[in-house]
Amino acid sequence: MNTLYIVVPAYNEKDNIEALIEDWYPVVEAHNESGESRLVIINDGSKDNTYELLCDAAKGRPLLIAETKPNGGHGSTVLYGYRYAIDHGADYVFQTDSDGQTLPSEFDEFWKLRNEYDAIIGDRSDRQDGKGRVFVEHTLLTLLKIMFGVKMPDSNAPFRLMKTELVKKYLPVMPENYNLPNVILTTCFVKFKEKVTFRHVTFRPRQGGVNSINFKKIFKIGVQAIKDFIQIRKNMKEFGKS
In 3D, which of 145, 140, 169, 174 has the Cα closest to residue 157? Predict the structure, then answer.
């Protein structure tokens, strides 16, 4: 089967949510052979009217699912979306973000590769959201190489198509509401030699609204990430033995 769930976390995205739906709803419509494909947008406790706009848009779009949850951060919301896709029988899960940095026109190239690979991950080799973000990603990749012995071009791209069974396989490696789930999933795919490939994707500046992550938060996330990686590395060793 080819049931596709596109999952998108959204936090304070009143300026972007309508454009997001206009961009991505046609994609799920075009890949709805099973009749069960869905665009699932998860409101992460927004303080603006993101959820109200989302609910209004869903009234005339039967393939759009409007979910909401208490604020828990990007990572926990991504995980919510993955678990939702798994629980509702999706064969494939695609994740992107709500800020308009990715292009739906590039989705089909990933979809065409789904029978060759179990995961197709975006490579933001020419990301346009600032040198600071590029530096953070390069630092993260270096840390992953040191901690886990893996080498990859991009660990955290919010443009990824994965078989849900593969996602389900590696969710137990990380804490339930882990803040960097895509990083760990990508690391596991590479480390355990799954059928994964990386493909270039366009990554534009944020198209509207304000980014909720600043460099102070990034520094705190980085410090915590090192501590978490130590425990996750232990979990991976146990996983590899099973």
Answer: 140
Q: What is the pTM of this model?
A: 0.91
* CA 203/CA 205 separation, integer angstroms: 7
- Rounded to whole angstroms, the Cα distance separating 14 from 25 reads 17
Task: Report residue 36 as tokens.
Answer: 């069960």
**Full residue range of the structural domain in which residue 153 is found:** 4-241
The residues, ordered by sequence, that sit 6+ positions from 91 with a Cβ below 8 Å of its Cβ are 1, 2, 3, 4, 34, 163, 164
Residue with tokens 């990380």: 174
Rounded Cα distance between 43 and 215, Å, is 23
pLDDT tens-digit readout, 176-221: 889 999 999 999 999 999 999 999 999 887 655 555 545 566 566 6
Q: How many domains does the chain have?
A: 1
**Residue 188 tokens, joined:** 């596991």
CATH number of the domain where residue 173 is located: 3.90.550.10
Query: What phi and psi, each to the nearest 5 degrees, are found at residue 148?
Result: -120, -5
pLDDT, tens digit (0-9, with 9 covering 90-100), for 114-152: 999 999 999 998 776 667 677 878 888 999 999 999 999
The values of phi and psi at residue 160, to 5°, are: -150, 135
